[in-house]
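Assemble and predict.
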Amino acid sequence: MPITVRPAEDSDTPALGRMGAALARQHHDFDPQRFMLPEDLEAGYRWWLGKELKNRKAVVVVAERDGEVVGYAYGRVEGRDWNALRDTCGGLHDIWVEEAARSSGAGRLLAEEMVRRLTDLGMPRVVLMTAAKNVPAQRLFESLGWRPTMVEMTRELTPKG
Ligand SMILES: CC(C)(COP(=O)(O)OP(=O)(O)OC[C@H]1O[C@@H](n2cnc3c(N)ncnc32)[C@H](O)[C@@H]1OP(=O)(O)O)[C@@H](O)C(=O)NCCC(=O)NCCS
């Protein structure tokens, strides 16, 4: 079945909550100290992404196959950030494809739709962060024209008191 991408709707929020939580769990598994795992992840993502559906400066799109949502991407307009030395740009924050639907082009379609929509919002570039261990995602992004620009490093501390 072909995969299609469309803007997310209110009725997608249960699927968005489930997939957002899965993305957070994946990151926690990469590095449990760096990536937090709050309680009630699904409800948190349902609330946040449901809210972002109404934000004109945010983009939430879903991939569908055979009438079923199999992936999503979330991005938004980000303002100038002096700490990051990053001017106003699009930020691609989440992209997830259900395991059973991977390697069929859904990730590429979601990323390309995000790029189109952030371009339409006037953005000159799209910046994303990807976990150091997430080689498949890095390969996809590089194949679509993203270049590596920052390396985040984390050191654990023993807090005083
Ligand atoms: C990263 C992720 C979104 C990619 O999604 P995907 O749907 O598998 O991506 P695509 O199918 O578009 O591309 C992946 C591979 O399938 C291949 N492919 C693309 N279209 C294809 C098609 N029609 N038929 C067969 N293979 C295809 C691509 O060449 C690519 O191959 P490669 O990995 O060897 O480079 C997905 O693996 C995922 O959800 N991972 C977990 C979440 C995650 O890591 N998100 C990124 C956070 S930064």
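Helices lie at 13-30, 41-52, 106-120, 135-143.
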